[in-house]
Each structure stands twice: as C-alpha cells, then as structure tokens.
Amino acid sequence: MTMIMAGLHRTYVNLLANSNPQLQQEHSAISLWLGDKLDRRLKKPSKVYFGLNMGWYWPSIDQDLLDKDYVNAQLKTKEMLAGIESLINSDGSIKERTTRGDRALWYHMSGLSEIMISMEYARALNVNIPSSLETKLHKAVDLFLNGLDDHLYLDTWASNRHHATYDGTQDWSDNW
Known about the structure:
The chain is mainly α. It has helices spanning about 1-15, 25-35, 50-65, 70-85, 105-125, 130-150, 155-160. The protein folds into 2 domains: about 1-40, no CATH class; about 45-175, no CATH class. It starts with a helix and ends in an 18-residue tail after the last helix.
C-alpha cells in the first residue's frame, strides 16, 4: 500500500497538481490529504533486491527527479544496476527467483520485469548500461522462454525450493 500511495503522490505532484486551475479548492484538499513530504517518509534504499521496487530504489530515484536532483538520481541508478548484475547468475538464473519451486517461472518473470524497468531508468537518465548486464539479461530471457516452452526445463533451478514448495510442476497459467 505504501508503494501505491507513494506512486500516486508522485504522479499527482508531477502531472496533475498544476492542471485545471479552476479546481484550486480540490487541489488544496488533495495536497492537504497527501501531505507535501510523503515520499520523504519512505524507506531509503540501502541494498538492491527484487521486490519493493528494487529495494526502494525506484521511489527514491523518482523523488530525486521530482526534486530535480539528477546527479543523485544517476548515482542511485548506477548503484542499482551494479546490484542487479550481481543478482543475475552467469547461466541467466536470477538469485532467489528462479529457484522458487512451483512458482519459479513466475518469480523469474517478475524479476525480468524489475530488471528491464530498472534499465529503462538508466536509459532515461543517460546512465551507461554495462554490456555484461545486457549479456546476462539476454541469458535470463532465454531461460524464461525455454521454461515457458517446457516447464520441466526449470527443474534444475526450481527443485532448490528457495522459500517454496516443489512438486515438479510450475504454477503458471498461459493466460497471464
């Protein structure tokens, strides 16, 4: 819920707060309700991990952008990319994601999503993406596609059961 509220707050401040001047009374009420320092009360990123928007990096970078602190946003993005690279193994598996038992395919896919969105932050901020990270990402995508085609392909990793159960099948719906 915190991440949703923070995202709504940033969206409102960046895109809507100065729109429709005839709605000043409504804008005042929204600003009072949201508070002007909501994002500043969020947890600060200290370690890159999957979940919670790459360990709170995204909301922190978003706040830097809102504050027009582009240098700090770039530094955090570089730090985030380095952390992500350390979480992707040379075979394309993703630390503590591809090994999630019956949900390994889903966790691997959600990890890919966070990686790609983080790389989009880098592109938007003109931060160089290391070619070694691109190479690892391609291997991770290949692993996902192979696992999607044949769920048994994931057995090598899924059977580790990291924080999970494993009965030899992937809990995956093709209509996702």
